[in-house]
Amino acid sequence: MPAKPRSFADLARGTERALREAGVAHVFVGSLAVAAFGVPRTTADVDVMVDYREEDAPLLAEAFRRHGFLVGPEDLKDALTEGSHCTVHDTRSAFHVDLAPATGPAGEEAIRHAIRVEWHGTVLPIAAPEHTIVMKLVYGSEQDVEDALGIYVRQGSRLDTTRMREFARRQGVLRALRDLERKAVE
Predict the structure, then answer these.
(1) Range of the domain at 161
(2) Domain total for the chain?
């Protein structure tokens, strides 16, 4: 009997199980962070940053396979080498996972400051709202800025503005953050 089609929530749960099984530090970013802290929107993928080494790639690929995903160890190694992401295909739905190696200070900070959030029956480590706002400003598309504004408005006084501004300064988007802060009070 074929496996039941997977919902988006099941995709996130399966991703979390595979990553925990592989024993790698990770943090969900992108639309899941927006849904947790801002204004939810539709999406076709789960974005996750993963702290792994080249020698972890076979174990990580196998953990994904056991949970109904397709990704090869070479794809995971290439993402590390190229400093990019790789697509983890879901065999049970049209959804997919965009997996990015957590290399560099921004990835390390995302994992270090992750907030454990209960989402559809499972607890996920999700990038803090301050981190998500700043990284959305770094990427800078119209949708990213809209997402950042939604998080800023919804989180309000709960934000650690000192830490967020320092992170924005290090990422080169302090002026954009100041503009967002002004827009939020208009």
Answers:
(1) 129-186
(2) 2
